[in-house]
Every structure is written in C-alpha cells, then in structure tokens.
C-alpha cells in the first residue's frame, strides 16, 4: 500500500489559534492573579507601538503572498517560495507579526502572565509549526528553498 504525503506541512494547529489560546489563558491568569510590572504609561506606549508594527508586517506579508498566488493558511498547499518584501528580512514574518501582536496586547493589559507564557508558546510554534513548514518546503521546493533558507534568517 502506497503512503500518500499530503501537500501541506501538517502543522499541529492553526498558528493564530495557538497565539490566541495562549493569550486567553494568560489574560485569565492575569485577571485572577494580577501582577503589576511596569507603569501604565509605558505599557500603553510600547503595546500600541508593537501592535502597529505587527499589523504593518502582517499586511506586507499578506500582500506579498497574495502577489505570489500562494496560500497563507498552512493547511493549504504552498505554490511558491515568497522571498521579496518582508520575506527578504524574515522567513516567518507572519509569525513574527503574531508574536509582536501578542506582546503588544500583553503590554496593553499589563499581563505579566502572558509574557511568561510567551517562551513556551514560541517553543511550540517553533517545533510544531515552523520546523514542519521547513521540512515541507524543503521537500517540495528543494534547492530553491535551501538557497532562500541560507540567505534569510528564520525570525529576524
């Protein structure tokens, strides 16, 4: 019997759900066990700045992927290696934007719990999403992806 390899990376979960779920748990922890850690003016300023940066990066990444006519959702097949625009600075600008958005919201809510849960979240994203995507792209695009991978950093 022949094993069929699906044309997607088989990530463990839809990445925005990983970020949103972790953030929701952290905000609930913050509500039950609040911990003040920075002055409100600092958290509002930094949080707002990070959210704006996150949205800008996400918009630029979505536009680049749409121009290349490739899927944004990792459960769908990738049809092209996108290497221009923000993808020339980071191989994962959408995950970078989700991380910045997560940190920005954490700061706006002054949720130290969210910042504490960020490291485990990033480990899960790295192992369960990014690594799987890299294996898939290497298998599908071979030398083209390896060349891109050698020229552009994973995150920043």
TrEMBL record:
Residue ranges of the TM segments: 12-32, 44-65, 100-130
Record keywords, A-Z: Membrane, Methyltransferase, Transferase, Transmembrane, Transmembrane helix
Database matches in InterPro entries: Phopholipid_MeTrfase
Any one GO cellular component localisation term in the record: endomembrane system
Ribosomal protein among keywords: no
Gene Ontology terms, MF aspect: methyltransferase activity
Protein name (record): Protein-S-isoprenylcysteine methyltransferase
Organism of this sequence: Dulcicalothrix desertica PCC 7102
């Amino acid at each position: 019997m022949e094993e069929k390899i699906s044309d997607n990376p088989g990530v463990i979960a839809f990445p925005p759900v990983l970020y949103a779920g972790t953030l929701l748990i952290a905000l609930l922890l913050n509500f039950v066990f609040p911990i003040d850690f920075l002055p409100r003016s600092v958290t509002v300023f930094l949080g707002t700045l990070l959210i704006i940066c996150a949205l800008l990066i996400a918009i630029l990444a979505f536009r680049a992927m749409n121009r290349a006519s490739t899927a944004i959702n990792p459960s769908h097949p990738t049809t092209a290696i996108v290497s221009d625009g923000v993808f020339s600075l980071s191989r994962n600008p959408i995950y970078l934007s989700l991380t910045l958005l997560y940190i920005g919201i954490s700061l706006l809510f002054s949720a130290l719990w969210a910042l504490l849960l960020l490291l485990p979240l990033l480990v899960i994203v790295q192992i369960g999403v990014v690594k799987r995507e890299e294996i898939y792209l290497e298998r599908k695009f071979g030398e083209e992806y390896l060349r891109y991978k050698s020229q552009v950093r994973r995150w920043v």
